[in-house]
Amino acid sequence: MRGFFQHAAFRNTSVLIGGSLLLVLLIAALAAPLLSAFDPLQIAPRFRLKPPSEEFWMGTDVYGRDIWTRVLYGGRTSLLVSACVAAVALTCGMLIGLAAGYFRWLDGVAMRAMDGLMAIPGILLAIALVTLSGATLLTVIIAIVIPEIPRVARLVRAVVLSIREEPYVEAAIGLGTPSYKILFWHIMPNTIAPLIVQGTYICASAILTEAILSFLGAGLPSELPTWGNIIAEGRAVFQRAPWTILFPGMMLAISILAVNILGDGLRDTLDPRMQKRMGN
Amino acid sequence: MLRLIASRLVAAIPVMGMVAILVFLMLRLGPSDPALILAGDTATPEAVAAIRAGLGLDKPLWYQFLVWIGQLLSGDFGLSVFSRQPVIDMVLQRIEPTVSLAFTTLALSIVIAIPAGVLAAWRHDSWLDRLIMTFSVLGFSIPVFVLGYIFIYLFAMQMDWLPVQGFTPIGANLPNFLRQIAMPTLALSFIYIALFARITRSAMLEVLREDYIRTAQAKGLPESVILVKHALRNAAVPIVSVIGIGFALMIGGVVITETVFNIPGIGRLVVDAVLARDYPVIQGVILLLSGVYVLINLLTDIAYILLDPRIRY
After folding, report:
1. CA nearest to B195, candidates B125, B253, B265, B256
2. At A60, is the secondary structure helix, strand, or coil?
3. Would you give per-residue pLDDT tens digits along chain B (313 residues)?
4. B79 has which bridge partners?
5. Cβ B274–A239 below 8 Å, yes or no?
6. What 8-state DSSP symbol labels residue B86?
7. Which of A158, A210, B209, B248 is most buried (CB neighbours < 10 A)?
8. How far is residue B274's CA from residue B286's CA, in Å, rounded to a whole number?
9. Residue A221's CB: how many other CB atoms inside 10 A?
């Protein structure tokens, strides 16, 4: 384990800054009940639309609920959704990419399907999927996952195509090693570094997409405190109570920023080829 | 060259076919039954069956698909469940604000990002470069709707410079058009400025290392000529490709921006359709916008071929 923490990634400034920022957000979301004495759902008409003060750090919403509390609890949903989306999208994309890259007969069909999926604007696809199947945590996660899969599949396929010509893979084929062993033992490990990088970017995009879905009214049920829902509820009263949108919006931007900075740092240390492609 | 362009055109057809199959399957195999929705909650099973037969939903799936494709190809995108208007007419009525916003955003992003990227590459590792790159990370991270509300707060509520929301057609009243489109354009441009500036910088950095740049410097050409004529021209292919991708991705951003600024465009149409569960409208808009996406990618490919005679597929 010591060797793991000595990896160059842990000495990269971007990784450290992004990672610690993310850690703070994660702890704040988990420790929400300790950081606030209010209930995120309890309606209190007496306190409606109070500006930020010592009692209500970020003010209150139209139902008199403390926005700081709701933002903390909203962080739980955002982080949970983004972690699930990244895990599922990486797994599905990797399986499709491995299969398409390795089995020539599958390549054409699978990649045309991915092209078609990529041509549908991701946010519209997610909106349509959630609308068709009803908004629950599961459908929201699936709806955000599906537009992300083609990017992962393409990335993995490109790695497989370059690795399958390597002498050690040809040697394994020559020795009669079964395909699944070649795929999972010899080829898959090469995809892990680029996938970790891609996974962080997927997290950032999942946090954003979840918020957009809620904001447009196509996301998780509006009584759940998510950042998108808090912002959506603030829309009607924004000119009277701008804090209802500006604070949750800031939290949203900060978390996406943290994940992006982490992703840039990981890209620089884990995947030098990609760094060259992006040129910085 | 014409053959290249023709081969790109042909390659776009299977992608569109795939989009059609995916959208069709999503709507037909999804858990909600279109006949039940049309019939309403109080309909009898016989009424639902009649509607189902009327829509052809009792036929085999491949038959339904062929009929549907035939309708699409003849420009029939179906009727809205609620207004009973043809979907294609509803889209055409709403297209102007969306196209206006997309083009003002594209123009503003290019005008700001390309000089910024060139400057950052020219003064590589200077404070200017770092400033531009920091802005670019920020641009990637602040969601357009958050930015939109920050701008409304600053420019409309605090300083009272611009109207909060709304849209005026460009032909009706130019000054009003500009005043109302300014904030949405600025908000939506942020991420594209970040994206285009980043790619311009990296493409320029690569070209500036080439021998012919050193030759040009040795000849004593002015720096501005080297940067624009020698370097930018050669860095153009990746830049144009990212501008194409960015423009295609803008479709999603426009939907959100229109909601924030209450612009009656295609984005509002689709959001209203989602809230009302108006499936024909959702389906039609997705198909049309995916078509636009494929078309933009096609134009980008053609632009490469025109820009760089070395490209051969």
Report:
1. B253
2. strand
3. 777 778 878 878 888 888 888 888 877 766 666 676 666 667 777 777 777 777 677 778 788 888 888 888 887 888 887 788 888 888 888 888 999 999 999 999 999 999 999 889 888 888 988 888 888 888 888 888 899 888 888 888 888 787 777 788 877 788 888 888 889 999 999 999 999 998 899 888 888 888 888 888 888 888 888 887 788 888 888 888 888 888 878 888 888 899 888 889 998 898 888 878 788 888 888 888 888 888 888 888 888 777 776 665 4
4. B86
5. no
6. B
7. A210
8. 12
9. 12
Beta bridge partners of A66: A60
- Could you give the CA distance from residue B188 to residue B104 in angstroms, rounded to a whole number? 10
Compute the distance between CA of residue B286 and CA of residue B291 in angstroms, rounded to an integer. 8
3-state helix, strand, coil in chain B (%, to 5): 80, 0, 20
Distant-in-sequence, close-in-space partners of A203: CB < 8 Å, separation ≥ 6:
A82, A83, A85, A86, A259
Which structure tokens are listed for B292?
Answer: 């636009």
- Structure confidence by residue, pLDDT tens digits, B226-281: 887 788 888 888 888 888 888 878 888 888 899 888 889 998 898 888 878 788 88
Give contacts of A51 with chain B, Cβ < 8 Å: none
H helical segments located in chain A: 2-5, 13-30, 32-35, 67-102, 104-119, 122-133, 137-163, 167-174, 179-181, 192-215, 227-234, 243-270, 272-278
Look up tokens 């209190």; give the residue. A44
Q: State how far the Cα of A267 lies from the Cα of A272, in Å rounded to an integer.
A: 7
Contacts B201 to A, Cβ<8 Å: 279-280
Q: How many CB atoms lie within 10 A of CB B53?
A: 12
Q: Give the distance between the most distant pair of CA atoms in chain A.
A: 77
Q: How far apart are CA A133 and CA B214, in angstroms?
A: 60
Between helix A104-119 and helix B2-29 the angle, nearest 10°, is 80
Q: Which two tokens stand for residue A72?
A: 């903390």
CB contact under 8 A, B14 and A112: yes
From chain A, the residues in CB contact with B143 under 8 A are: 208, 211-212, 249, 252-253, 256
Beta-carbon contacts of A13 under 8 Å, excluding residues fewer than 6 positions away, are A265
